[in-house]
Amino acid sequence: MSWTVGDAVDYKGYPADKSKTGGWVPAALILGIEICERLSTMGIAVNLVTYLGGTMHLPSSSSANIVTDFMGTCFLLCLLGGFLADSFLGRFKTIAIFAIIQTLGTGMLSITTKLPKLRPPPCNRHSEDCQEANGLQMGVLYVALYLIALGTGGLKSSVSGFGTDQFDEKDEKEKAQMAFFFNRFFFFISIGTLTAVTVLVYIQDEIGRSWAYGICSVSMFVAILIFLSGTRRYRYKKSSGSPIVHIFQVIVAAINKRKLNLPCDVSMLYEDTPEASRIHHTEQCQFLDKAAIVAQGDFVNGSTAPNPWKLSSITRVEEVKMMGRLLPIWATTIIFWTTYAQMITFSVEQASTMERSIGNFQIPAGSLTVFFVAAILITLAVYDRLIMPIWKKWKGKQGFSSLQRIALGLVLSTIGMVVAALAESKRLSVAKSAGRNTSTLPLTVFILIPQFFLVGSGEAFIYTGQLDFFITQSPKSMKTMSTGLFLTTLALGFFVSSFLVSVIKKVTGSHGGQGWLADNINYGRLDLFYWLLAVLGVINFAIYLICALWYKPDDKKMPNKGVVQMEKQQLNGAEKC
């Protein structure tokens, strides 16, 4: 049995043989899918706003909202993919099915951008007789985009988890390989993004969008074949059920027993979890404790197995409490991703109006996000090689805590919006003097680099900080759920951006004016919109600090402190009675 993995099976359902399954090679095959997914999603997202405005002739605010809604849906559907993987399909089938869906979506998008009937006739976007895309043309585009979003959601929810399934945590050698896999996973994500915002965006602008999207579709198809070729080499782990279902079971049981009184002694509450895996009772959210009160009819047909919708163990209740304590931090990180959304929408539109030439080479507007990716890679390298060693010598700790990294990300993104507002003020002053209808303003696009760098550096801190926080502070049985919770902050950030744009467009565009977010941004006040985001960032950071300070004491009350902690709680409960 030393040559098998206890909690994994091979493709035939037998215990997985270490010599024939798992390890770095199968994990590398899985990484291929992630690279192509990132190439497709980011290659479409960073340059979609220019297609919607320049080819489909949509207003700038509408174009920005379509992009942010698309990205938000991509991340929101991670919850659906995770639920299906945990409850029905398993990670392998989920990846295969949703990869095929994304391939179909990119293929359809390639055809959509190629056929003349699926886009309006060319014209000057800001002229009065310019015709916007009709309902059929936009409908076909939406179907293609949301097929891609569905595929992305299913893939993102399972790729990293299936990759880690290839390593045995109980084997020291494979545990070290798993750490190597995590490092390379984020690196390959960045490589895929970097390729998307440089090579793919250049092909879109200079050769044709249909060619670029066709490359995405073909590369994803090849990645699927490579992924399936490793079927015999993969390790498969059985799911213990969806954490979302477990959470609802506790809540439903607590609501049904809301009229019952809690016992004075917490040891009278139901517990069937093995001692080594138990989470001891805490005093917070005592309403949920009622789910662990044993009542008549809680057991199935008189057996020892409880009905999970009527009775939950203390450990299951405490898991829900732990997830609940994450929510304040979760809520205060959404505004960062609202700021991030501007980097792939309005910042790209800004770039499209400015001088982008280097000699005879014209930089595509969407490729300005390369500075965003570069900022992430540089920040991670500086943090890993410079900040962490210094911090360890000074404080004796391995770098900043997860909450400190999140705080740094929020601060940098807020400063980024201040810098973006100042840069836009400069651009608008040039537009006023040169003529607001001038196609290319006499102003270098490189003044936008600071805002890309600041928000990019912020993402490097907040992404790793959030991932670390949600994984380490969540119960072991809900790691997948906590990762999905983290990804929903990205989704909601994009949706909040769409909401803000719609509100600002309606409020400031009344009385016949175009307001802050005019169809032609040279006539608008995008700088005021950036100032608004900066103010919201300051308010959000203040709330975050309060939530972080509130969460700090809970770190000292983390579960599994031992029998002494349990006895103290029981004594306290007896004294209250």
Automatic annotation (TrEMBL):
Gene Ontology CC annotation, any one: membrane
Pfam families: PTR2
TM regions (residue ranges): 66-85, 92-111, 143-164, 185-204, 210-228, 326-343, 363-383, 403-423, 443-463, 484-504, 528-551
Keyword terms of this UniProt record: Membrane, Transmembrane, Transmembrane helix
Primary localization: membrane
Membrane topology, as annotated: Multi-pass membrane protein
Protein family: Belongs to the major facilitator superfamily. Phosphate:H(+) symporter (TC 2.A.1.9) family.
Protein's name according to its UniProt entry: Transporter
Species of the source: Lithospermum erythrorhizon (Purple gromwell)
